[in-house]
Amino acid sequence: MVLPGEQARLYRPRPELLPAAHVPSLPHYQRLYQRSVEEPHEFWGDIAKEFYWKRQHTGPFLKYNFDVTKGKIFIEWMKGATTNICYNLLDRNVNEKKLGDKVAFYWEGNEPGDSTKITYRELLHKVCQFANVLRSQGVKKGDRVSIYLPMILELVVAMLACARIGALHSVVFAGFSADSLCERILDCGCSLLITADAFYRGDKLVNLKHIADEAIRKCKDRGSSLKKCIVVKHLGREEITVDGTCSKSPPVKRLCQDVQAPWNPDVDAWWHELMSGASTECEPEWCDAEDELFILYTSGSTGKPKGVLHTVGGYMIFAATSFKYVFDYQPEDVYWCTADIGWITGHSYLTYGPLANGATSVLFEGVPTYPDVGRMWSIIDKYKVTKFYTAPTAIRLLMKYGEKPVKKHSRKSLKVLGTVGEPINPEAWLWYYSVVGEERCPIVDTFWQTETGGHMLTPLPAATPMKPGSATFPFFGVVPAILSESGEELEGEAEGYLVFKQPWPGIMRTLYGKHPQFETVYFKKFPGYYVTGDGCRRDKDGYYWITGRIDDMLNVSGHLLSTAEVESALLEHAAVAEAAVVSHPHPLKGECLYCFVTLREGHEFTKNLTDELKKQVREKIGPIATPDYIQYAPSLPKTRSGKITRRILRKIAKNDQDLGDISTLADPGIIKHLFNSRCDTKQ
C-alpha cells in the first residue's frame, strides 16, 4: 500500500548516472528546454544537421496554423529538404559510423531457447533485398502496404523496405481480427499485404494466414485494390542467408507441427522464395521531409479507428532525439521495449528511434507470463538489458505474483526503467522502482500518443526528480497548457484539459483521407491549440499528472473527478490487482462511480471488502468520490495490447447490450460474465 506522502515525495536521480548523462542536471534540462521552445528553428535545425539530407531545406524551417478560425490546419517542418529515413537508420550506421558488425536486434522467440540476432549490416542487406522484392511486385513511392505480422525480424525488415522506396506502411497488430484488418486495408487503399503462416502467443496457436485470407475475401467483396499477399514461413522457419540460399534452422519441437497455410497462387507468394536471389543493393527513394512515411490506426472514443499519418523528416528527428534523451542512450546499452510494433510505441521506440541512434535492442515475440511469470526478468539477465520500457498493465500483472519471481533473477544490468501507454498508479510505480529496479534505476514515466509521434511529458533519467505517478515535465519543443472548459489558460496549480500550444517535429500531419475530421477532433474545441483529449493536473511544483481521458472524467454533483484518480485509490488496497472506473447515471448526482475490481490471488470479494474499498476512496479523495457500485471482475475487457476498454465497461454498468465492435478484444467471453454479475443499480 502507498504510504501517505509517497506521491509528493521526490525520488532524485542516482549520482552515478550523472557523469555520462546527456542531461546531467535539472538546470541543464531547463536551459535546453528554454532554447527549444523559444528558438525551435535553431534548436531542431542543429539536431537535423546530425542526419543526412540529399538536399537541404531552403525556405522557412517551420510553417503551421493551429487556429481553425484562421484557415486550414497544417504543419510543415523542413519542407523542401529531401532525405530517406531508411538510409539514415542503416546505410549511415554501416558505412559512415562503422557499426556494421554491431547487433541491431536480439530476437527472442515465444519459446525459451528460440532466439537469433541480426547485425546492422545484415539488416541493411535484408532490407535492400525486400525493397527490391516490393519494387518487383509493382510497389512504388506513395503506395500503401499493409503489414500483418507477429513480432519477428521480418516485420522490421518490411517496414524499413517500405520506407526505403517511399511506400507507406500500415502495420496492423497481429492480434486484430479479419474485420479489423479488412477495415484498415480498405481505409488506406493498400495494394499489398504482408503476413505469416502462423505463430504462437504463449501456448495459443494463431493461424495468421487463415485470418488474413478471410480479411482478403472481405476486402474483395468491398472492391479492394489489394492484389498480392506475401507470406513469411514462420513456424518451422527457414532462415534466408544474404546470398539467397536456404538453411533450415533447428526449430523448437512445439513449432515443428505442419501448419498448412491456405494458398491462392494468383495472390499468395512465399517471402523466402521472393527473397531468393534478390539483390542486396537498392538505391533509396529520396523523399521530401513532408512526404508521407506511415499510417497507424488508433481507436477513438467511438471505437472507429483513425488513420494517423506521420511524415518523414520531422518524425525521424523527433523519434531519434526523444529516444536519445529520455532513455539517456549510451553506445554500450542493450535496450528492450516490450511493446508490439503494431502500436506507436513499437514504431518510435523499438524501430525508428533506436535504429537512428545505432542502438542494440531486444525484439520479443512472447508474453510476460509464458512459460512462467519470470520470463521478462530472465530475458533481462540473458541479454544484460540496461534500459527497459514496458506498460503499467504488465507491471500490475506481474505484481500479482509477488517479489519472489523477480528476485530469482539478477537484473543487475538495469540502469533505467520506463513506462508507457497509460498513467501509472503510485503503488505500481513504487513496486517497479523498489522491487524491479532495487531503488537504483530512475523511472521515465512517459506521456504521449499515437498522434504525437514521441514523448511529450517525461522525466529525464539523470536530471528530473521523480514523483510516483507523475509524468513530470515537458520534453524539448513541447509547450503544454491546461485549459478550463471555457478555454481559459489556467496558471499555477490547476486541473483541466491538456493542450499543446505549438508544434513539435513529430506531430501527426493529418488523418489519412480525413483532414476535416483531423481538424475537428484535435483543433476545433480550443482554436489555437492541439487538444490531446486528456485531462491533466499541475501541482504546486509544476509537475504534470495525467488524470485520464476527458470522456473518462466524471461530474458528480458539480465536482469534476478523474477516473484515473479513483482507480489509483482502489489499487492501493492490498486485495486489488486491477481497477477500472466508469460513470453511471444517478438521479441526484447526475453521475456516480461504478467500479470494476480484479483481486489478487488469495482474496475474496465480500461485503466487508466492498466497504473497505469505499472507505479507502472516501479517505483518499473525499466523500464526493465514494463509489456507489463496486463489481467484482475476474478480468477486465482489454484490447490485445492490454488497454482496458472503458467504452464497454460503461455499457455494462448501464446494462446496455448494444456494444458495437468488440472484435479487437483479447477475450470477448468476459463480457457475458460481467453482465451477469452486474450490481443492482435499481435500488
Strand content: 15-25%
The CATH homologous superfamily of the largest domain is named ANL, N-terminal domain
Based on secondary structure, the structural category is alpha/beta
Output the number of helix runs: 19
The largest sheet is: 8 strands, mixed
Outline the structure in words.
- 30% of the residues lie in helices and 22% in strands.
- It is of the alpha/beta class and 683 residues long.
- The chain has 3 domains: 309 residues, Rossmann fold (3-Layer(aba) Sandwich), CATH 3.40.50.12780; 168 residues, Rossmann fold (3-Layer(aba) Sandwich); 120 residues, ANL, C-terminal domain (GMP Synthetase, Chain A, domain 3), CATH 3.30.300.30.
- It has an 8-stranded mixed beta sheet with strand order 14-11-8-6-7-16-17-25, with helices on both faces. The chain has a 7-stranded mixed beta sheet with strand order 5-4-19-18-20-21-22, sandwiched between helices.
- α5 links the parallel β6 and β7.
- About 3% of the residues have low confidence.
Question: Main attributes?
Answer:
683 residues; alpha/beta; Rossmann fold; GMP Synthetase, Chain A, domain 3; seven-stranded mixed beta sheet; 30% helix
Task: Detail the topology: elements first, then pairings.
Blueprint: H1 26-38, H2 40-48, E1 62-65, E2 74-77, E3 82-83, H3 85-96, E4 103-108, E5 115-119, H4 120-136, E6 144-148, H5 153-165, E7 168-171, H6 178-188, E8 192-196, E9 199-201, E10 204-206, H7 208-221, E11 228-232, E12 238-240, E13 246-248, E14 268-270, H8 271-275, E15 287-288, E16 292-299, E17 305-311, H9 312-326, E18 334-337, H10 344-356, E19 360-364, H11 375-383, E20 387-390, H12 392-399, H13 404-407, E21 416-419, H14 426-436, E22 443-445, E23 480-483, E24 494-500, E25 510-511, H15 515-524, E26 530-538, E27 544-549, E28 553-556, E29 559-562, H16 563-571, E30 576-586, E31 590-599, H17 607-620, E32 629-632, H18 646-653, H19 670-676
Parallel strand pairs: 4-19, 6-7, 6-8, 7-16, 8-11, 11-14, 18-19, 18-20, 20-21, 21-22, 31-32
Antiparallel strand pairs: 1-2, 3-15, 4-5, 9-10, 12-13, 16-17, 17-25, 23-24, 24-26, 26-27, 28-29, 30-31
Helix pairs in contact: 1-2, 3-4, 4-5, 6-7, 9-10, 12-14
